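Honest question from a wet-lab person: if I give you the sequences of every part of a complex, can you actually get the arrangement of the whole thing, not just the pieces? Trying it with mine:
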Amino acid sequence: MNFAFSEEQEELRRAVRRFLDEKAPMTEVRRLMETDEGYDPAVWKQMAEQLGLQSLAIPEEYGGAGFSYVELIVVLEEMGRSLLCAPYYSTVALAANALMTSGDDAAKKDLLPGIASGETIATLAITEDSGRWDLDGITCSATRSGEGWVIDGQKMFVLDGASADLILVVAKTPGGISLFSVDADAKGLSRTRLATMDQTRKQARIDLSATPARLIGNEGQAASGITKTLDLAAVALAAEQVGGAQRCLDMSVEYAKTRIQFGRPIGSFQAIKHKCADMLLEVESAKSAAYYAGWTAAEDSDELPVVAALAKSYCSEAYFHAAAENIQIHGGIGFTWEHDAHLYFKRAKSSELFLGDPSYHRELLAQRIGL
Amino acid sequence: MCVKQIPDPAAPAALDPSTRNLVRDGKLIMDESDLYGVEMGLQLIDAAGGGEVTLVSMAPNGETNGLRNALAMGAAKAVLVSDPALAGSDALGTAKVLAAAIRRGPFDLVLAATESTDGYTGTMPVQLAELLGVPSVTFAKKVTVDGASLKVDRQTEAGYDEVACPLPAVVTVTAGVVEPRFPSFKGIMAAKSKPLETLSIADLGLDAASVGGAGAREEVVDVQQAEARQAGQLVTDEGDAHEKVIAFLEDLKLI
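Yes, you can. This is the full assembly:
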């Protein structure tokens, strides 16, 4: 096992960072978060055509570049750092993973190439009004209709649900938990944008009424694939959280060095120093957890379920703490709309809750290590 | 494409106290102004439907770090000339070395940046053209190949000139005229296994006395601190600041 990123992975990081600095700076984040679509199609296209980010971890036989989750977390970390407004997480971390763990080769051949090329924006709809992330909370139901299936029910907090072309829906059938794909323009499907505190990440409610759907995988046997998808998505989110937390720490340290109060930089005061030191400790620990989780995902290790729950719970708290302390260290200016601190604070909060909060993931962790 | 590998401009630069030349012993990176030429070359290949971009570079200590970026973008191979005897080269010495390296094989077009970010002489490309015995066109903002001739939109203060010349030629590409592509991870991985040849001056059949510090005809005789910026003029805004700013700019004949 190699604990360090390779030179090529570091070069990927530099390329992605340069791309995001140029194409998705904070001015763009602020512009896009006010729009309904929430992303820039030109940037999305360049991500796909030049950097090949959408295809990065998709196997070559399905139109991807065939690299691993380790490369993917490098990219996600940079996206978290820049608060990129784009349906990347929903398309790649949620939908592509759901397809890849579905065991349905025909569906993978049909749907993954579009994701890899950047043509398809996709998402995964799991949770409902209850806000539950475990599969026992699913009430949406699918029934056979002629050759195919139709779905009835409602999905909530669907990331990029309003801009996605392809929506993967988890629903109950007589056989149990099943996965379906639904076209965004399918009959009986309506989508409503949700007002989100974190404007950089769009969500939607999706209502399905006798909406035609394609069964992915075998009926009633999607639970293990979806559970694994949620673990992979948790690892991906942890990587984003690490990027955001590191950015908050960098902003704090920079400000603590330059902001003069009582004739000296505020970083020389113990109260500020201690905050920064605590943030550093947590950010570094979060990195260790997220990188290790990325490695278990890349290796398809048995440890993934345990490490994913650990990384998601720890990185959520580290990011939220860093984002909150960043505001404190910045003092008055940190509370203003013009300063970026609140954007990180809100992303930290939405990421903390998405896929389940830290207590939920610690409970998962406890169960998975047999406590 | 001539690629210069330079000390990171973000890091503080140092001058050798005896030669007053820039210290280049640390890690070098690709000069950002070369990205535009690499992109231009790749676009010309795409338009022509064939051919390849070869990188040519001269750098100390066998440095290849900066070449890898351009290989990841899509250049096919690289030639690096690295020799301790090349320390202290001036622009002409560099042109001699690059000309010798370029002459080793057939070429259609030599691209370079208009000037490097660390040296700024801007003279090397035209010297290179002279040594290769081919025409040179500077400050290109657009380049198209039409059979055996080249059409260049050459940037001027007032706009641009349309220049045509036969191939082969040396063309310098103005920074910012094309958007350099971002490499994919596939490209980054492929760059590792692309051919990268390292040559000494003996390999090029050059005499050590004619290049490097020994052959340099340029010498840095003195280095002075840049003049400190004068204090500006403070305008207190009492509702008429914009008028004062306009008057100030009009005085300078800027508006």
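Two things worth pointing out. The interface with chain B takes residues 8, 11-12, 15, 18-19, 46, 50-52, 56, 65, 67, 71 of chain A (CB under 8 Å). Residues 223-258 of chain A form the longest helix (36 residues).
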